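For the sake of transparency, this paper describes our internal protein records without simplification. The remainder of this section carries one protein's record, kept here as part of the documentation:
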Amino acid sequence: MKIYITRIGTICILLLHYTSFTKAQTPVSRLIKGSVVDDKKTALPYATIALKNEGDTTIMLSTLSSNKGLFAFNNVKPGNYRIEVSIVGFETLKKSDIKVDSSNKLLDLGIMVLKTSPHMLNGVTIKGQTPLVERQIDKTVVNVDQNITNAGSTVLEVMQKLPGVQMTEDGQVTLNGKSGINVMIDGKPTYLSAQDLASLLNSMPASNVQKIEIMTNPSAKYDASGNAGIMNIVKKKNRKEGFNGSLTGNVAQGYYGSYGAGINLSYKTKAYNLYLSNSYTYNKSFFNRKVTTDVLNGNDLLTEEASNNNNSSRDKGYAPSLGLDLYLSKKTTLSITGNATVESGIDQTISDMNILDGNRMLINTEHFSALNKDKPFNYTTAVALVHQLDTSGREFSVDLDYSRYRNSPGQYNTTVLNDAEGNFLNQSNVFLDQSRRLNIYAVKADYTQPLSGKGRLEAGLKSSYVKANNNNTYYNQLNGQNVVDSTQSDYSINSENINAAYISINKPFKKLTVQAGLRAEQTVTNGKQLLTGESVNQNFLSLFPSTFFGSPAGLSTVSQT
């Protein structure tokens, strides 16, 4: 067996994601598409399109139109919907009675024409209200706290509604159809597998989040591991002096109920800002899926597999955090923060499958069950120093971070095979015992320099070290005893050190804004499989140039009346 270790994101995804023995099936993809133009038939880029439930107008999905005014929603669930299209300077367009059923795989809404707002004819009044969506040259900013429908939701539920974002049932995040997205919290990578990340985000209340930044083409400032895209979750921070506090709570009812509560406290003076928070979430879900698959065996004989799959999951967790900002001077702030998540989860899948021959005659029946239990514990500590060199915007900052992730999931799998008459043929019992340990150290320094004509220069250095221990022990149950299967077990220890430097320049011109940058990364990796003794070591240098073009008007959005 060969081991390949390339980038930090690849290491963590491969090493932290454990094998699922449930029989996943690919759901039917349903697509809603259309285009947005003005009354002169000119394409309108960056219009916000929201897909809402017809009954309660809850936002299910949202996206932005492309440069050609095109938009699409993928993997839409059956139901009755309405579409709302909005953009600054135009009247909001609403389209109701949009029906999606199991047989409707493609729904083309055609060309949607927006009328110029009459307020634009009388001039524009700019107000201080923050818009829901802002389009900048290298990212889209969704201001979560500006959408009242996010109240009571978790961060995971909010992410599923973001422009161009889709999430698979196993927690994999895709952005505009691309997988391998780097999800960050307050500018710091999470380094978690898809399933662990989904569990973490499902324990975070949306009320604690200020905004989410979506970067389809990240600038040179960010790690190259996020070249498929970056989503940065920015938490709220108290800015009012004195004692402040809030309590939140939410209840939702689906097939099962879910609920959550949170508390935020802070005390700010001219010398310091002390803040703490804690939240509790409880989620229980259920879904049923029926799948029919035609299979050709080695003799080109057709068999059919028809399965009925039921999955139920229950997750609960706490997310405490504590922070202290010390105002050393009017230009210097020292921040010390700590965050943790304590979770407990149970996931169970039960599948019954009929195996038919080419004449649709029953051959065998198979009953499969999988039970997964997990209690992850994660925490992050950070120290940051920010110093404003002058009043023009020159700034220097240093960050030190340490993160530790621990979890030991166990998965129990049972498969029972019977013949067409229901007679027992065989049974297999498997237990997968896992232990995952991840330690992350990072230090970085950033410098910002304003340029003439509202330009900006950014430069910085970063060094990170990641060590991951991943132990997967596979047991077969024989005669009531668990026997280790070394052919399917693995125990690996991997480390990666990345040293990086970047420079980025943003310069607006009369009709064009240009942002260009270059990032250099030296990567040193070491990986070893302890069961086989195989190892691999790599040391290489990579360069990552980036360039963005945009109109000055497209850099931000303002509210209008």
In short: The longest strand covers residues 424-451. The chain has a mean pLDDT of 81. Residues 130 and 437 are 41 Å apart (CA to CA).
